[in-house]
Specification:
The chain has 183 residues and is of the alpha/beta class. It has 7 helices and 5 strands. The protein has a single domain, classed as Protein tyrosine phosphatase superfamily (Protein-Tyrosine Phosphatase, Chain A, Alpha-Beta Complex).
Length: 183
């Protein structure tokens, strides 16, 4: 994963950017990262009235229960029809250092773009909105806005203080950014 001295320096810089400046507190409510991209946790994904108020039309669950995924097919939208959420996708990812979170990026990018280009808004969530969804959102913002990894993290961190405590996901983002030319 970390392949060079440049990657090691980049990881150090990323860790410095993500160092908490005060005691960690996870925000309540979805956090708007872009006009059409929100991040949150499981509780925020269940707050249908708040999602409707924000105009969320798509939900991407990055922490699906593997028992609920059916033979490689993804479960249908759990939101009630009146919620305004008409598109739902999910994958089961573990929040552990060795888990390859970036294997889900291409699918997530397509889903987020579907919301963006249809004039909708998407909530990307995991359990707490800290690691799995943050890794996907940081990668998306970096690619979509053509920002360096560090600038994408700075912009997102300005809106959501607690991000990416998973060291393995940090390393994967450094590798991803290097491969895509965003270091």
């Amino acid at each position: 994963m970390i392949e060079s001295a440049e990657d090691t320096r980049a990881l150090g810089r990323l860790q410095e950017l993500l160092r908490p400046s005060h005691p960690l507190s996870i925000p309540s409510g979805p956090t708007a990262l872009l006009d059409y991209l929100y991040i949150g946790g499981f509780e925020e994904a269940q707050a249908v009235d708040e999602l409707r108020r924000l105009g969320i039309t798509h939900v991407l669950n990055c922490a699906a229960d593997p028992g609920r995924l059916q033979r490689g097919r993804y479960a249908s939208n759990p939101s009630p029809p009146e919620s305004g959420i008409y598109a739902y996708d999910q994958f089961s990812a573990q929040d552990v250092d060795r888990y390859d979170i970036m294997q889900h990026f291409a699918r997530a990018e397509v889903f987020i773009n579907r919301a963006k280009y249809s004039g909708g808004k998407v909530l990307v969530h995991c359990a707490a909105g800290v690691n799995r969804s943050a890794a996907i959102c940081i990668a998306y913002v970096m690619v979509d806005k053509k920002l360096s990894l560090f600038e994408a993290v700075r912009r997102i961190r300005a809106k959501r203080d607690v991000l990416l405590t998973n060291t393995g996901f940090r390393k994967q983002l450094v590798s991803f950014a290097r491969r895509r030319g965003f270091l």
